[in-house]
Amino acid sequence: MLNLKFFHSVLLLSSIGLYQSCCPEGWVKGRYSCYYPSHDSATWLAASIKCQSMASNLTVINNQDENNFVAGMIKEYIHAYKHNFWLDGTDVNQEGHFIWHSAKHPISYKNWNVNEPSGGSEDCIEMLVKEFVDPRQIGKWNDKICSYLNHYICEKSIDDEGPVLSQGSVIG
Ligand SMILES: [Ca+2]
Ligand SMILES: [Ca+2]
Q: pLDDT at position 5, please?
C-alpha cells in the first residue's frame, strides 16, 4: 500500500514537472547519462576540455549496454560525420595501462577492435564509425594518436541539473 502511495506521489510530481530528468538541447538521453556527439573535430585533449566547458567529460563506457547505445546513436547519423569519436580512455601516463581519464580508474569493460590496441604512440581511445570501417566494426575501439582531429562524445549524468520547477508549477 505504501509503495503504491509512493508511486502515486512520484507520478504526481513528474506530471507537474517537479523532477525533470531531461538532457540539455543538443544532447541525447540514454539510460543513465546524457550524451553529446560533436559535429566539430578536435585533438583528444582539446575535446576533453570542450566537454569540461559544457560541465561534462568525454564519454566513459561502463558496459556493453552503454557501448551499444552510444554506437547506435552515432550510427543513426553516420552520414553527418567525417571522423571517429574520442572516448575518455587513454594510456598516456603509462603505456599499455588504459584508464578512464575523468574517473581515474582502469578500464574494465573493453570493446577493442581486432588487433587493437596497437600501442606505441597511439595513446587515446576512439570509437570507430568511419575510415574504412567494416560495418561490423562500428562501435569497436581503437587506440589512436591523441593529436589526431576526431569528433568526440561528451557525457554527463542525467541528474546533473537537479530537481527543477517547471514554469507555471502549482507548487509554492
Ligand atoms: Ca558512462
Ligand atoms: Ca591503434
A: 55
